[in-house]
Amino acid sequence: MGTKVREKTTSTKEEQNQIREKYYNEAMRYMDNAKKYLELAKKDGKFYEDQKYVKTACGTAYSGLLVALEGYSIITGHQTKAKKKERRSIDYYREMFAGNNQSLLKELNSAYNILHLFGYYDGELKVSIIKDGFDLAYSIIKRIKPME
Question: Which are the contacts of 13, defined by CB distance < 8 A and separation ≥ 6?
Answer without folding.
Answer: 147
